[in-house]
Amino acid sequence: MRILFLTHSFNSLTQRLYAELSARGHEVSIEFDINDAVAEQAVELFRPDLIVAPYLRRAIPECIWSRHVCLIVHPGIVGDRGPSALDWAIQEGEAEWGVTVLQAEAEMDAGPVWASAAFPMRRGSKASLYRNEATEAAAQALVEAVTKFAAGGKPTPLAESRGRGRLRPLMRQADRAIDWRRDSSETILRKIDAADGFPGVADELFGEPCHLFDAWPEAIVSRGDTPPGAIIGRRETALLRATADGAVWIGHAKRKDGVKLPATVAFAEESAKLPELPLDGWWAASYATWQDIRYEEAAIGENAVGFLHFDFYNGAMGTAQCGRLRAAFEWARSRTTRVLVLMGGADFWSNGIHLNLIEQAEGDNCGPADESWANINAIDDLAEAILRCDDKLTVAAVRGNAGAGGCFLARAADQVWVRDGVMLNPHYKNMGNLYGSEFWTYLLPPRVGAEGAAAIMRQRLPMTARQAVAQGFYDACLAGDHAAFRVDVARRAAELVAAPDFETTLRDKRTRRAADEAAKPLAAWRAEELDRMRRNFYGFDPSYHVARWHFVRKTPASWTPRHLARHRDLGWKIPD
Ligand code: COA
Questions:
Q1: Ligand 1: which atom is nearest the Cα of residue 431?
Q2: Measured from the CB, is residue 137 less than 6 Å from ligand 1?
Q3: What is the fold of 293-552?
Q4: Atom 44, ligand 1: which residue's CA is nearest?
Q5: Which residue's CA lies nearest to atom 43 of ligand 1?
Q6: Ligand 1 centre and the CA of 547: distance in Å?
Q7: Which atom of ligand 1 lies closest to the CA of 402?
Q8: Are 430 and 405 in contact (CB under 8 A)?
Q9: Average pLDDT for 103-121
């Protein structure tokens, strides 16, 4: 079928649904929801058999839904209606939630139901639940709905579908407000989770209004004499704040008219005066706390495997974070393990350089161009450290999505194992035609060929985990379920470390690296890439700075990129 996606943006959920339907042979084209006239024009051009709205912020115009079947992907259980579905589910502690695919009609979210899928809730931010459980459920329900539609099936009227959901209003800041004197840590975590990544909880830090994001529990620090609501201390980029019954960590904040930033950067002067609350080295703490980089080890017979986790908010890796991660990597190298697994974070493995930190960089000799330069060098240093690791085998275990430089940073490891369902965006051009670095020019062609590499960069389309492995970009696609993926990774790492030919494999790796270095040193690959990046950052073409400005401020799209809106291709014709 020809399926038109009408969507607010090409976010990870939309990408996943696009991949699922394309893989089933459907021709999918995308139009961003700019205004009614543009949507009508897209329908006219593409003449779709079916319209799908994976992520819309307003109603589909009547002239479209009255003439075409339009399927809405609603992140709520059957019967749930309203724009804050997941927000309410988290804040009210629902044990189970779901996604419903319903048909658009005059009343929002009240059309007949084509399919639905349920999932158990867990503690986590709205964005995390959306990217993981809700995305899996949406993929399952949409495929079911599309299959049913193709077979001439009919949806079930909402009144007959016996859902327990109900109409909920938009969640307002008054519903989200934290009462620091009375609210327990658990209540505060839930409120911030329900508002994360957008819109955050309107609150204050150091007497300044701001929005709070990225909350973490703290199990052992009690608030002592500190009154609830006061800041106890800081750790790297996070602030510890007293609650009525303990304390919680606040990882990110957005000041009025500012962009979302690590909390200690958003309030740099104030945070600098706070006591630092360090952890003891890189070892994973045995209790709940804020720890962005943590190391674990598993003994396998006489050998051991190291697991290095780096859970950076939104997968964005700033200059200091790259530096700390490199220090942690070098420390992990000094352990007597034979295999080191780079685990990334649960939601993202890495999305490359930190565009928000770059955007806010200011001062003498330190504007966004300088910070971009510092950041790309810091991430390249990290990639180079991984590439030069010659006494262990390294594995990147990509369990969360990865984008741009993050995809190539993973490739710096000897093996890349990716969780089924992960969405990858291994290209840079969407960010104002960035050339990219992280040694992609060295790493990509041997895996996918020179033409394959050029195609990946040129197409600017997402890649599924399976496609990445089929193309040879990554090495293995493992279980889709997070827990099963971790078990799979541990099992494979154990096999790797215990393999009888381990020493030969390691020797081959050294030989290959030495031959590569003799043919063309890493320094030369890096210098060539950075030469192009320097032009992106400091040259007269401001595309990257403009694209970044819009990206961090989330400027709504004013047109759909041509590589997504295939119906707008000049040569595109409705097939006979
Ligand atoms: N720096 C800072 N923030 C980033 C980021 C980066 N490199 N990549 C993603 N984010 C943030 C987004 O702004 C968004 O923030 P929010 O919490 O305020 O909503 C959040 O991460 C999730 O991103 P989103 O775009 O909604 O996620 P997605 O899963 O739908 O899309 C990508 C993933 C990778 C396609 C998209 O985020 C992207 O293009 N990122 C930029 C990658 C890049 O160009 N990096 C620089 C070159 S190395």
A1: 44
A2: no
A3: 2-enoyl-CoA Hydratase; Chain A, domain 1 (3.90.226)
A4: 431
A5: 404
A6: 12
A7: 34
A8: no
A9: 94
With a 6 Å cutoff on the Cβ, whether 352 touches ligand 1 is yes
The average pLDDT across 4-33 equals: 96
Domain ranges of the chain: 2-170, 178-271, 293-552
Kindly report the protein residue whose alpha carbon is nearest to atom 20 of ligand 1.
314
Q: Do domains 2-170 and 293-552 have the same CATH topology?
A: no
Average the pLDDT over 288-316 and give the result. Answer: 95
Which two three-digit tokens encode residue 48? 């779709």
Mean pLDDT of 364-376: 92
The per-residue pLDDT for range 39-52, each reduced to its tens digit, is: 999 999 999 999 99
**Which fold is adopted by the domain 178-271?**
Methionyl-tRNA Fmet Formyltransferase; Chain A, domain 2 (3.10.25)
pLDDT at 384: 98
* pTM exceeds 0.70 for this model: yes
Atom of ligand 1 at shortest range from CA of 434: 47
Which protein residue has the closest C-alpha to ligand 1 atom 12?
314
DSSP assignment, residue 550? Answer: H
Structure tokens at 446: 């041997």
Residues 109 and 56 sit within 8 Å (Cβ to Cβ): no
CA dihedral 177, 182, 186, 189 (to 10 degrees): 30
Structure tokens at 380: 């390249």
Name the strand (E) or helix (H) holding 249.
strand 247-255
pLDDT band at 450 (very low <50, low <70, confident <90, very high): very high
Q: Is the pLDDT of residue 109 over 90?
A: no
Q: How far is the CA of 194 from the centre of ligand 1 (A)?
A: 19
Q: Among 11, 351, 359, 433, which is best to mutate for testing ligand 1, by the most ligand atoms less than 8 A from CB?
A: 351
- The residues near 275 (Cβ < 8 Å, ≥ 6 apart) are 232, 233, 234
φ/ψ (deg, to 5) at 284: -65, 130
116 within ligand 1 shell (Cβ under 6 A): no
Q: Domain 2-170 - what CATH class?
A: alpha beta
Q: What percent of the chain has pLDDT over 90?
A: 92
